[in-house]
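Hey team,

Filing this mostly as a record. A colleague (T.K.) asked me to run one chain through the structure pipeline before their review meeting, and I want the input and output archived in the tracker in case anyone asks later how it was produced. No errors, nothing strange. Just documentation.

Input sequence:
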Amino acid sequence: MRIMGLDVGDKTIGVALSDPMGWTAQGLEVIRRESIDKDLTRLGEIIQEYGVEKILVGLPKNMNATIGPQGEKVLAFVEKLKERFALPIKTWDERLSTVAAERMLIQADVSRSKRKKVIDKMAAAVILQGYLDAGAK
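Output structure:
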């Protein structure tokens, strides 16, 4: 089962995909947000092209596990996904995923300018890999 992981922000959406066996996550692309319709259209193209069967959306929570303003925006985006796509859609705690992605890129000696371009898709991959590693299907 191929799963698409999303790191939804105000300006970008990081997209990652699992391998067909559901063992590993790879960053795919960063969608620059223009409008909800364009965002969903591009996600639909990815779903079709890769045969995605489930969508996992990183849910930003505060450190005390409450949902803040950004989490509310993500939950509203999840509702739009549910309206558009007839696929199972789950949320996954994404606390510190961007920090983990940034550390991995720094360890790989990726320059600051290149990190900025790929951090969102790396964060999506970290979120998706956490879900896969937890055995949550």
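Quick notes for T.K.: The mean pLDDT is 87. The chain has four helices and five strands.
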